[in-house]
Amino acid sequence: MLPKHNKKISGCKWKMIHFLFFIFFSFSSCKKFVEIPPPPNRITEDAVYTSDVTAISVLTAIYGAMNNSPFQVGGIDGSISLFAGLSADEYTLISDFPNYVDYYRNELKQLTPVLVSGGEHWAPLYGFIFKINAALEGLSGSSQITPAVKMQLIGEAKFIRAFCYFYLVNLFGDVPLALTTDAKINSLLERSSTEKVYEEIITDLEEAITMLSDDYLDATLLKNTTERTRPTKWAALALLARVYLYTGDFIKAADNATAVINNTTLFGSQLPDLNSVFLKNSQEAIWQIQPTEINFNTQEARNLIIPATGPILDLNSVLVSKQLLSSFEKNDNRAVYGNWIDTTIFKVTDTKDDTMAYVFKYKLFENDPNITTSSGTSNMNEYFMVLRLAEQYLIRAEARVQLGDINGAQDDLNTIRNRAGLDPTTVVDKNSLLSAILHERQVELFSEWGHRWFDLKRTGKIDEVMEVVTPLKANGNAWQSYKQLYPIPLSELRSAPNLKQNAGY
């Protein structure tokens, strides 16, 4: 059941107007993936790929756009981290915003061609893919870019395309593989099987590994930097390790994770302390995105941290769920208030206080006038974390269990537990160790990139967990297994004759 709202989060009518405006604007202004026409400024776009500076700006602009939906939490739209966390058991919803409620109650639905819950990430992800396809076409046809720059940009483009398809296939299941900007081809695409999509993801990542730099590069792509905001070979290896784990190729999952872990020059010989992890250019960071909003660090902090005055309208929508809070072991430092979880004691009435627990991985949420368009990078202290080293230990731990290397798996699991202040694991049999690793992923990767939602699905645990959780979130309504996949927007189905909806919707 949704909690009773306080005055700070009232105003449902105003929010509904805001919601309808957002839906209209986003769907009317976004190019549908199946109806993208040839760009009218073709000559201008071709000119982009005649110099290093302008070619680099194409990918740089994409990273800037990734600060907004579907990646970072932003205003009334929502990120993959937020919506997948609402779908799973990570959050308690304290907002009455309609599409948030639908994700939280596992009641996604298609109401009209534009009023939809569940398909918010479809158009933005395919929008990124279209831009990447256009960039790949432009780069491959250019002979005027410095060869090293051209190779790095193609590698970045293939990495980002794989990254987007990873989230599409895990949110929606079978999806169309759009690998060109040709509108006629795209408009007739059918949904490719999950297996085929993963094959393309692997191909893109394997090619990216051969093209991307071993070192972090600056804006020229010709000099090294301490900024970890452009993908490297290690980012491609890290994502590929995850993909191999998901597809059951445990040898390659372990090998790729090991390659990343063994790069102690970049990532250190041990994990940094908990409250250093999410700082900009953290030693644990494999890839981060630099925020672009003036006066603030990450949007994540603004949305997840509850101020002492209580939740802020249109910013604060979720608290840490009871399920997540109760999953931490005694003495787990991640759950110690002030580390990765914190609380606000909010005065509801003169005689009653309400303690609100919230995610506190990112800690800087207040206005900072020193963060400007010209000097924001140097004055920021937190970047948006995309890929980090702890996941690689957990990937390798799981792969090692599947390969029969129990001692190696225990070592990797204990690396994560030791940082959290926990004793080494005592489990030794395969099934118990796999359960222990799944649990460790829950308490280590919570609120990040839909890990919990995807883990429940790929391990076959989703029905077991959600049959208990959904009735608690949805006023007693039962969980239905088909809802582990999100619906495709009705507007896309009407525009693409060969596109079929997910079962149940």
Task: Describe the fold and architecture.
The chain has 21 helices and 8 strands. The protein is mainly alpha-helical. The chain has a domain at 27-38 and 46-211 and 462-496: Serine Threonine Protein Phosphatase 5, Tetratricopeptide repeat. A two-stranded antiparallel sheet has the order 1-5. Strands 2-3 form a two-stranded antiparallel ribbon. The chain is globular and about 70 Å long. The two termini are 24 Å apart. Residues 1-43 have low confidence and may be disordered.
Overall residue-averaged pLDDT value: 88
Total number of β-strand segments? 8
List the strand order in the largest sheet: 1-5
**Alpha plus pi helix count:** 21
Please tell me how large the radius of gyration is: 22 Å
Helix/strand order, N-terminal first: HHHHEHEEHHHHHHHEHEHEEHEHHHHHH
List unreliable stretches of 5+ residues. 1-43
Biggest beta sheet attributes: 2 strands, antiparallel
